[in-house]
Amino acid sequence: MERVILHCDCNSFFASVETALNPALRGVPMAVCGSEADRHGIVLAKNELAKGFGVVTAETVREAKRKCPQLVTVPPHHGEYLKYSKAVNAIYARYTDQIEPFGIDESWLDVTGSYALFGSGLQIAERIRQEVKREIGITVSIGVSFNKIFAKLGSDYKKPDAITEITRENYKRIVFPLPVGSLLFIGERTAELLASCSIRTIGDLAGANPAFLVNHLGKHGEKIYLYANGKDEDPVVAPTHEDRPKSVGNGMTFRHDLQNAEDVRIGIEALSEEVAMRLRRLGMKCTTVSATLRDSALKSASRQTSLQDATDSSREIARTAYQLVMQLRKGRPAIRSLTVTAMNLVDAAEVTEQIGFFDTERQKRKEKESRLDRAMDGIREKYGYRSIGSGAFYGNDLGISDFGPEEKEESK
Q1: Deepest of 49, 223, 277, 401, by most Cβ within 10 A of its Cβ?
Q2: Which residues of the chain have a pLDDT value below 50?
Q3: How many CB atoms within 10 Å of residue 216?
C-alpha cells in the first residue's frame, strides 16, 4: 500500500499562541519580539496582518514599526509555546503513533495504517485541522502526500488554515512551477548556484542531468534530484526515550558589552548554571566544554577543551568556560555575547571515576558542589528557575536577573 504522509504546520505559531492567550490581539497587526532593552530587539514571529505590511522574521523591531507604525509587539513566552506544541501533538497522536516533530510547530505523520479507522489522508487531515482549531484555538496548514518532502511542500503551498494534497497524478502540475528554493534542504547558496546553471524551478531540477548535479553539489546534488522527482523514501521516524542530545548549550547577548573580567565571570556562571541543570535533568555529564564569544565588532571566536572527568557541575563547567573565554578575549574589543556548550555527553549512571590517594580534597569539593547543585535544582523545580541564584546575578545591569528559561516550562 502506498504511504500516506501528512505534514502539519502550525500557522504563525508564536503569534497564534499569544493571540489565543490574549484575544485582544486578534484583528490587529502584531509581532512577537525580543527585548530591545536586552538588545534582542528582532521579530521572532508575526501574524498575517503584520505580514501584509511587509513585516518579516529576524528584522529589527525598529524596521518592522517603520513598515507598520501601528504594530503591536509582545514578548515571547516559550513555556506556553511548549505547552501548546504538546497539546497539538497530542491531537496528532489520536490518529497515529508515527509522529516526527520538525521543530516546535511542525510534525510529519505517517497515517498509512490509519485508513481503516479514520478514512483517507485528506479526511484525517481535515479532522486534525478542525480539532486543533476547536480545541487549541490556533490553526494548522497540512500537506498530504506520498512522501515527506512533498507533504512539506503541501503544507507550505496554501496558508493559513488550509489543506493541500499532492499526489502522483498532480505533483508535476503543483510542484514543478515552484521556485527551486521551496524544496526542503535547498538553502540560499544552493539555490543561487542552481540559478547560475539556469535551474530556477523544481521542474528544472527534476529535468536536470543528475551527473551534472553530482559534479557540482556532490551527494547532495543526487539527493535533491531524487526529491524533485518525488523519489523520497525517508521514513517518518518517531523519537524514542533513548534519543539524547549530543550537546547542551546556552547563550546570551548582554545589555551592555562586557569590559572587565568580573562581568565575564558573572555572565559565564549564569550560562553555566542552566547548562549544568539541563545536563542533570537529562541524566548526563559532559566530557568537553566549549565557549564562544562575539565581540562588539560582531566577530565570533570559539574554543573547546576536554575535561579530566565527566561532569554535570555548574561550577566546574563555569571554571573551564571562563578560562577559555579569557584566552579568547585577548586583543579583542569588548564582549557582546557569550555561549557556553557542554559537549561529548555520556550517561551519568555509567560514569566511573578513579580517585587517587591525594585527590581527597578535590573529591570533597566536588561532592559539596554536587549537593549544592541538587539542592538548587529542588528549589527551582518547586518555585521556578528564577527563585534562587547567585546574588551577583541580581546586582548587575547585564540583564542576567531576567535571564533563564520560562518558569512554567522549568517547573514541570
Answers
A1: 277
A2: 354-358, 402-412
A3: 16
* Predicted confidence (pLDDT) per residue in 258-306, tens digit: 988 998 999 999 899 889 988 888 888 999 999 999 988 888 899 999 9
Q: Which three cell numbers stand for residue 305?
A: 577543551
- pLDDT for 412: 25
The CATH number fitting domain 247-410, selected from 2.30.30.100, 3.40.50.720, 3.30.1490.100, 3.20.20.70: 3.30.1490.100
- The vertex-36 CA angle with 34 and 37, nearest 5°, equals 120
Percent helix, strand, coil in the chain, to 5, is 45, 20, 35
Q: Which runs of consecutive H residues, i.e. helices, occur in 30-134?
A: 48-52, 61-67, 78-92, 115-118, 121-131
Provide the pLDDT for residue 333. Answer: 85
Whole-number pLDDT of residue 384: 57
* 1-166: CATH architecture: 2-Layer Sandwich (3.30)
β-sheet with 72-74: strand ranges across: 43-46, 30-33, 72-74
Which CATH topology does 176-243 take? DNA polymerase; domain 1 (1.10.150)
SS3 call for 375: helix
**CA gap 224, 344 in Å, rounded:** 31
User: Is 106 a known active-site residue?
Assistant: yes
Instruction: Say if CB 333 and CB 240 are below 8 A apart.
Output: no
Tell me what the pLDDT averaged over the chain comes to: 86
